[in-house]
Amino acid sequence: MTRPLDRLLRPTSIAVVGGGAWCTSVVEQCRKMGFAGEIWPVHPKRDKVGGIHAFSRLEELPCAPDATFIGVNRHVTIETVRLLRDIGAGGAVCFASGFREAQAETGDGEGLQTDLLEAAGDMPIIGPNCYGFINYLDRALLWPDQHGSVPVDRGVAILTQSSNIAINLTMQARGLPLAYVLTAGNQAQQGLADLGLAVLADERVTALGLHIEGVGDLRAFERLATEAKRLGKPIVAIKAGRSDQARAAAVSHTASLTGSDAGARALLSRLGIAQVESLPAFLETLKLIHFNGALPSNRVVSLSCSGGEASLMADTAEAHEVVFPPLSAAQGRRLREVLGPMVALANPLDYHTFIWDDVDKMAECFAAALDGEAAIGCLIVDYPRADRCDPAAWECTIEAGARAVKMTGKPLTIVTTLPEALTEEVAARITAAGMIPMHGLDETLVAIARAAWLGKQGNSLTPLTLPGEPVNLLTLSEAEAKKVLQTNGLVAPKSVRAEGAEVLAACLTEVVGPAVIKAEGLAHKTEAGGVVFVEGDRDQAVDKAAKMPCQSWLIEERIEGAVAELLVGVLRDPAHGFVLTLGAGGVWTEILQDSASLLLPATDTDIRNTLEKLKIYPLLTGYRGAPAADIGAIVRAVLAVQDYVIEHAAEIEEVEVNPLLACPTRAVAVDALIRKGEAR
User: Fold this and answer.
1) Which one of 18, 100, 455, 544 is CB 3.0 to 4.6 Å from 113, fit for a cystine?
2) Structural domains in the chain?
């Protein structure tokens, strides 16, 4: 059902239902913001709310309001929403809590949320349990508290499920223009993706920032990402919930490696959404994108008048995916002419203070440094505090930087090592001069790396394979798991099953050469003593196997000459899709914790790129003259597992091959596990 949000988010008339402090604040904040439309408080007993005449009933309003803030209890909220729908209102923000998010505490939240959605029908509602939104472009808000930003002509939109984080973000003093700030609450009707699509449609919005607690509708997020790519408006996200607590699956390693965080990261990467880890990095990345857009590369040139700052920049960059290309011969000649013989030419460059306050020479120095391989420049300047010092001598940096930008056409950031060393007033003058004010070396380098990553993303998205909700789960035996995976092309050792200790010796004769006997029915067989390697004395091996705590055994040829052991696992993640994890396998799984994840379906190229991220990848390519693994065979094995999962998506809970022995001529699955159930 389509619920257009235009009237709600860009209203010309606002109704405020309720008379408490929150509702009074909405009215006052609307007036303070300079909202040009009508403001209609509604309260059955008060003549005025926030200094404005109040109507006693919604039916008395001059016409149906475009947007309504509902600040009454949860039961009255439902009736108010129904009445607004009946009179043709444009939409509402539901402030009250106590709906689905409080089901465990109240016992009736689920039912009330169902009633709320029924009452709303096709009228859009935001929340419940949220603060609403601020539209800084049109000076309109349904927001029951203070906020710290000002109206703008264009800027970024920020969406969050946390009202308190939204308040905090409005208080930023970093020179980032905010176009919209929206909270989604428990997303009863309008999710983050729905709100994101609505604000991206506004031509005055340049980028979208998401603070995500839970994704929700995966297809809706795919639509959001696709539309953002079409419009050329990047999305930056910070994802809450980086917990080490994975779904506890006692029978495999994949769950402990994957967890919820790996799935979220894989999803955001798949959708072309740049993920960051902190709110300061979130704001700085959005700022860089707002003023400059994505970058063509991660190559950076840094300039400062201090060797300490140059070293600090170089050291900080070690933790980030940025590159400082060496200065070219042409750059060296130009810089030497300006700086003289006393300056060591390098990138990061310490240009010393010899040319300080000589704007012509400073501009030539900055332009020479920018006019090379770098996609962006960083000019490190910490401005003196104006209340105790005279910052006039630092004005030369802004003038010289502006000239350098005009001379080269390259973006230049002015970066402070301390956030307090760049005030909003100075930031505004920097942007007016055509540069980008950035706070903090670490956050700036995060922003550059993320902007460069965004610059590499394509415009097309392959739809995710959505998991089902299988019931009555069961775990296939190793032999059964290998058999079904072999039908999709997975290579497994030659094997025979022995059902009963009395046939162990006879079955062992069917396997020529080195062999291995494995107990069936044990999780983590190696740790449980359920594996015997057969090399010389076969009778002794049979005796050891007979003492294992099991009733049947799997006897296989022993695969030799492996370059490395890998794990290939797929886990059903209801929040993010099927998560494919590749990592160090066998006994190295827990020790190295070396893994990387992506979502199904994955391409040959995706799989190869993911393998390259592993610490053990050098082993696969022939480390120090050792034989290399057959990478193509590894990829085919992963695709075989993927094909099986996609064919049985409604039934699969988990599939794991561990280890997959990566050999010079093949990749062989020596252990496999499948947990599946009945499709709902």
Assistant:
1) 100
2) 6-233 (3.40.50.720), 300-421 (3.40.50.261), 494-557 (3.30.1490.20), 564-678 (3.30.470.20)
